[in-house]
Automatic annotation (TrEMBL):
Its cofactor is heme. It comes from Stomoxys calcitrans. The keyword Repressor does not apply. Belongs to the cytochrome P450 family. It holds the Pfam family p450. This is Cytochrome P450.
């Protein structure tokens, strides 16, 4: 009888212990729980998602497109921030603009989220993925390379590359037809890759790796990025890189790194030759004159810093890899959706054309930063397109220590904070008719109708994108050249688009428009 009593007591204490443990830990996710500091129910602060197994089974069964839609449905259903537990980590999902602003301006929350770790084999820990003192020193080093005077030098490059792009578009017309079908997602990345290499790196791509090949290899990297974030086994490097997939990944990276190394060495040689030429002759020859006209670019800052001992060759490679892909991918996505939206809204397209004709001459002789700045409606169109289709649908931060958020929410060390830009941008809480394309909402007199914190396509706060002005300048220049020559008509409509999660916003099929020559 006494033995039965002991068994009952043991069972009661065991059940109590498990219940108490479950209050503090998500047992199936092997992680501490997000709690309130005063012990009040967490659901008064945020919505809690998932049962005893967290969100593991649900999310692990989804592909990239399904996962994108899953987060959209959650935002629509919960209408507030929500917590879930997934693959050994607590996750706080932010869909409130004010809370997003708090996170992005919090100096305790500068570390990028866990997902960025899977980009480390490719871009290592450059400006995009580093944190701490390394991130601060790199940002100080690189920020001056995007000032007004340097950006002015890039307009001529953007103009020439845009003229080349117009020539490419003309090749899609058949002689007997005034219509051409354009696959935006195939053509835009080539243009933007050329632009970033020539402006920020000072190198032509003609004698480097073919653009299409580079894009194909990066697409493989992105596919692997998603697979690794959704596979419990592939998360661990020591396992993954012993598999066939891991070894193929390393080969793909070698090709991409060879591309960036070629860029660095070409620029290094050009600058070295210029120095030698200057030392050996007081009278410049034609070649010297050519070199003297070279623009000061981001890569020059890195090479100068290398001489001063502020960065080594590996660090230069990190930043070149980072800026080549980030600087080309973001603007490509922005342009794809901007042109799609222009094709869908002829009245908006006409307003852009009229504004452009007022400020930019047909011979483009006055196409410079000053006149591009006058294209205010262009700005509205680009911003509205970025609102609906932000390049990064979400960004993430990681708590490097136990962190109290908003005074009452205790986030354990390692908590992932996902800020859902896509959902904030499309929230009826901040925008009237949020699904409708209305560039006028960004006119100065209407900006007061939505908070500044509800629009941040280039991130915001302490880690905001240093290339935002560069990207806007590049996109406006191409819009001018294309609208000068063509009328855009729709083929792909928004309800046909199926977005998916990747390194940036992706679509599962081609986005097409039709062009008609203006003249």
């Amino acid at each position: 009888m006494f033995l039965i009593f002991l068994v009952i007591v043991f069972i009661i204490y065991s059940v109590y212990g498990v219940i108490n443990l479950h209050r503090n830990y998500s047992l199936t996710s092997f992680t501490r729980r997000i709690k309130t500091t005063d012990g009040t129910p967490l659901d008064k602060e945020v919505f809690e998602v998932g049962g005893i197994f967290g969100s593991n089974f649900e999310l692990l069964s989804m592909d990239a497109e399904q996962k994108f839609e899953y987060f959209r449905q959650n935002a629509s259903a919960f209408k507030r921030n929500y917590v879930q537990y997934y693959l050994r980590t607590p996750v706080l999902n932010i869909i409130d603009a004010n809370d997003a602003e708090l996170v992005l301006n919090d100096p305790r929350l500068l570390s990028k989220g866990l997902g960025y770790k899977f980009l480390h084999p490719f871009i290592q820990t450059g400006l995009l993925t580093s944190d701490g003192e390394k991130w601060r020193s790199r940002r100080r080093l690189l920020l001056p390379t995007f000032n007004y005077n340097i950006l002015q030098q890039f307009v001529d490059i953007f103009k020439q590359e845009s003229l080349n792009f117009v020539e490419t578009l003309n090749t899609h017309f058949k002689s007997e037809d005034n219509n051409a079908v354009i696959l935006l997602n195939k053509l835009m990345p080539i243009l933007t890759l050329n632009n970033i290499c020539e402006t920020a790196m000072g190198v032509h791509l003609d004698d480097r790796l073919d653009c299409n090949e580079y894009r194909q290899h990066f697409a493989k990297i992105e596919k692997i990025f998603f697979e690794r974030t959704t596979n419990p086994i592939m998360i661990f490097d020591f396992i993954y890189f012993k598999t066939r997939a891991g070894k193929n990944y390393l080969k793909t990276m070698e090709t991409l790194h060879a591309f960036s190394s070629g860029i660095i060495e070409k620029r290094r040689k050009l600058l070295s030759d210029l120095e030698k030429s200057s030392e050996n002759s007081s009278i410049p020859n034609d070649e010297d004159m050519h070199y003297s006209k070279q623009r000061y670019v981001l890569l020059d800052s890195l090479l100068r810093a290398e001489k001063e001992g502020l960065i080594d060759h590996a660090g230069i490679c990190e930043e070149v890899d980072t800026f080549v892909i980030a600087g080309s991918d973001t603007t490509a996505i922005g342009l794809i959706f901007a042109f799609m939206n222009l094709s869908l809204h002829p009245e908006v397209q006409q307003k852009c054309y009229e504004e452009m004709q007022e400020h930019i001459s047909d011979d483009l002789s006055n196409l410079d930063m000053a006149n591009l700045a006058k294209l205010q409606y262009f700005n509205c169109v680009l911003k509205e397109s970025q609102r609906l289709y932000p390049t990064a649908p979400y960004i993430s931060r990681e708590c490097s220590e136990d962190t109290v958020f908003k005074g009452n929410i205790l986030l354990p060390k390692g908590t992932q904070i996902n800020i859902h830009i896509y959902d904030i941008h499309r929230s009826a809480k901040y925008y009237e008719e949020p699904e409708v394309f209305k560039p006028e909402r960004f006119l100065p007199e209407q900006r007061k109708n939505h908070p500044a914190s509800a629009f941040f396509p280039f991130s915001a706060g302490l880690r905001s994108c240093i290339g935002e002005k560069f990207a806007m300048l590049e996109m406006k220049t191409l819009m001018v050249l294309v609208l000068k020559n063509f009328i855009l008509e729709p083929i792909t409509y928004p309800d046909e688009i199926r977005c998916s999660i990747g390194v940036a916003l992706r679509c599962s099929h081609d986005i097409k428009i039709k062009l008609r020559r203006r003249y």
